[in-house]
Amino acid sequence: MNRTINSRIKALLLVSVLATGVGCSDLKETPDFINPDTFYKSATELQLGVNGIYDDLNSGYSGYFYDRYVFECLTGDQIGWEKGPLQYNQGNVGSGDEYIEAYWSISYRSINRANAAIEIADAMKDPTNDALVKRLKGEALFLRAFYYYGLLSYFDNPPLTIKSTKGISELPTNAGGKRAVIDQIYADAKAAAEALPAAYTGADAGRATKWAAKSILMKAQLWDEKWAEAKATAEDIINNSGLQLYENFGYNFDLAHENQGERIFEAQVSAAANASEWDVHSAHFNPEDYPSELGGAGWSWLSATQEFRASYDNKDKRIDATFIESYPTGRLGKINGQYPIVKWSPTADFNLSRFGGIVKTDANPNDPSQMVFGKAWAGKLVELGINYNNTEKNTIYIRLADILLGHSEACNESNTGDKFMGINKVRARAGLAALSGLSQSALRDAIIDEREKEFVFEQVMYPELRRKSKPGGQPDYLGAHINHYITKYKVGRTLKPRDYVLPLPLKEIQGNPNVKQNPVWQ
């Protein structure tokens, strides 16, 4: 996909397809500005509108990407000292929360844009570009399914709307609950898979493919516990896509392999194309003491715990790409003209404070045992060696390992097929021994553990843990994680049913009588 949409087009998109404000149908006079009735007349113009749906995958200071990371802090594996992550670490979540409101707003803005694009495509008369129009409609269908899956992942019962908003009186409902949303994801993902190509080249690289659509379909089937269907969809992707795991795990996150291979769907990021991209990317994840002279931001709001990093097998080949294992520190200033190097250690001092786990200011730079740190910084997200303003790393949302682990889960839960195939492919790439002979419950535990090791820092584990958990039930992976975090770090927090689903935002409840709050939040 083209990396940038210029300011004029962004302004046009805001005028033409946003859900907020008064729609064009409410205007009595004939408008003298560009609007959907006067602009979207060709496939080229429709493509600009579809680009705007992709754009929200990395939008704003409190954006789609960053909000998901804040939500992850509910589990306790990922931590932060900035107000958002800190409050989620402590379980202080409410319907008026700014991160929930931002994520909700971005999601429905994008859904409404997708709705408008689908309607425009259906009505468009551009016979010379019929194939392109059909493909663009497929992209919009995929993106609508993608954003609805994100809402399902956190809120269970978001309102469903599949028509573009024309006026302020058109209010969606969540009367159908998660069932209605899942069924819509099924319909959109299947239709998108029929319309989309298997791959792209050139400037279109990064757009949604048929395999991205089928991936969202499989993920929704897992959520719906449709094990046979999820198994079949996963096998279709595994057997027919031609995709293979990279031998090098780190290729999933570097610049050289963007929009290639097992990277099924990713958001395009380029500070060179959009100077505000850094707002929600590398700057949040740089080590606290990484020298500003070398590009450090000094924000360093987010990391994982020392214990989580220590839980990896020392032979795990994912470690180097997942975590920052060493870096030059600015805590001691320059020594002989160079910033000294610190290395991660499982025995370094660590606590949950802003500076807990960073090398001590009085450390002896000539003593390797003192030049250590305990925080687990995100190697998947940070680009050391460049200024944080210049981030170019794409945000990965779907990759093949997710499909392989989904296949193992579907086989395990349905007691059919080769339940070890998927997880063992993931483990083999990591340099770990194959699993065999596990009971259903033991393999279920192993799949959860493998997901955590494989996908940490990719904003997926809170939804995955809660998807497989029931408050006080068996299994309860989410409750076990939170209780361990509370006990380990003596956090003043109590596990509660509200930890298992986010509340619908207060503004939605107050402004839309057709939407009912999630029962546990009423």
From TrEMBL:
InterPro entries: SusD-like_N, SusD_RagB_dom, TPR-like_helical_dom_sf. GO terms for cellular component: cell outer membrane. Gene3D superfamilies: 1.25.40.390. It is found in: Cell outer membrane. Residues 262-521 form the RagB/SusD domain. Residues 90-219 form the SusD-like N-terminal domain. PROSITE patterns: PROKAR_LIPOPROTEIN. Keywords: Cell outer membrane, Membrane, Signal. Pfam families: SusD-like_3 (PF14322), SusD_RagB (PF07980). The keyword Membrane applies. Residues 1-21 form the signal peptide. Coiled coil: none annotated. Belongs to the SusD family. This is RagB/SusD family nutrient uptake outer membrane protein. It comes from Larkinella knui.
